[in-house]
Amino acid sequence: MLMGNTPMQQAYRKRTLEVFLLSLFLLTGLVVSESSAQDSHTLKLVESAKKEGTVTLYTSMNVPDVNRLFEAFRRKFPFLAPKSYTTRSAALLQRIVTEAQAGRHSVDVIQANGYTVDILSKKGLTKKYLSPESKTYPTKFRDPNGHWVATYLFCNVIGYNTKLLAQAEAPRSYEDLLDPKWRGKLALDDKQYIWFDGLLDAMGREKGLAFMKKLANQQIQFRSGNSLMANLLAAGEFTVLVNARPEQLDKLKHAGAPVAWMAPKPVTVNVLPVAIASQAPHPSAAALFTDYLLSAEGQTLLKQQAAPARPGIADPDSCVSQSSEVFVNDISMEERFDEVVGVYKRVFALP
């Protein structure tokens, strides 16, 4: 059909084109404005950070991962010499609290498990910082008060021994584990309190507790330690590991071990956030490092150790990418810790 060419139709087409061009201009301007605002933010931090000269990270990451991150960070900001103190999250918590009580303020950036960062925030030892990069992250990966953003995730998946079990026969959901054929063939770490509490929340407390009680009747083998459980699975000590860490099984698999994992629905995850210390001696450098850690470049560097929290960075075969439902475990569980441990032990008849 040919378009009409009456004066009224010409005016309508002209007005439509004007509206389209105006919309395009406003959209482009918005993108440019946001980009310019972020560039301005970074430039201001750089000027101050140059005077600070360093940034100190307290982290639970492995030393090789920290070194790889620092090397890339120094290439981007060569005027900063980053330093780190690396240990378990529980030890980080104790050190940061002890230093604060003694009036020593050495830490700039804190990266640890969610429970540690949550406790520190409640003690007033972290501060609000709204990184421009944080807008990319889902709200469930951000502190509503602006004190932290998740850097990466530890997923809870179901592991199995591929010599003892074909992929087609592997359990694909938690409910599958209740099949009588798995009785005596399942194993579980005897201290999986976070996984236990998170799955109760994800399923609904009443339904989740009923599931756990049925699971407890499956003659589960209990041991202590995530790494030990992964190695015992590889050795064929049991067929299925009820709760496994995919990154641990992937390392064993790459080394030739007969292990694999499935992402159940829902996948529960532990967030490992980053936060800036409330009395950071190098606040601008701390903000620069936090921005970098949350950026697409920084998040890509984290893929070798766990699932990055930033959308679009995780590999297609990661636990987060494989599941349509991702449920974040409650980082405030430490307030109910004794209660959760008590229920866990009663359900599974553990001493």
3D architecture notes:
With 351 residues, the protein is α/β, with parallel strands linked by helices. It has 2 domains: 43-153 and 270-320, D-Maltodextrin-Binding Protein, domain 2; 155-268 and 332-347, D-Maltodextrin-Binding Protein, domain 2 (3-Layer(aba) Sandwich), CATH 3.40.190. Helix content is 44%, strand content 17%. The chain has 12 helices and 13 strands. The protein has helices spanning 7-52, 63-76, 89-101, 114-122, 193-203, 205-215, 226-234, 246-254, 283-294, 296-301, 319-322, 337-347; strands at residues 54-59, 81-86, 109-111, 126-127, 149-155, 157-161, 186-189, 221-223, 240-244, 259-262, 267-277, 307-308, 326-328. Strands 1, 2, 3, 4, 5, 11, 12 and 13 form an 8-stranded mixed sheet that branches. The protein has a 5-stranded mixed sheet with strand order 8-7-9-6-10, with helices on one face. The chain is globular and about 65 Å long. The termini are far apart.
- Helical segment count: 12
What's the CATH topology name of the largest domain?
Answer: D-Maltodextrin-Binding Protein, domain 2
Low-confidence stretches: 21-33
User: What's the number of extended β-strand segments?
Assistant: 13
Number of individual domains: 2
Q: Radius of gyration, Cα only, in angstroms?
A: 25 Å
**Can you tell me the CATH class of the largest domain?**
Alpha Beta
Span from first to last CA? 81 Å
Overall average residue pLDDT: 91
Helix content: 40-55%
Shape: globular
* Largest sheet descriptor: 8 strands, mixed
CATH structural architecture of the largest domain: 3-Layer(aba) Sandwich
Structural class by secondary-structure content: alpha/beta
Beta-strand content: 15-25%
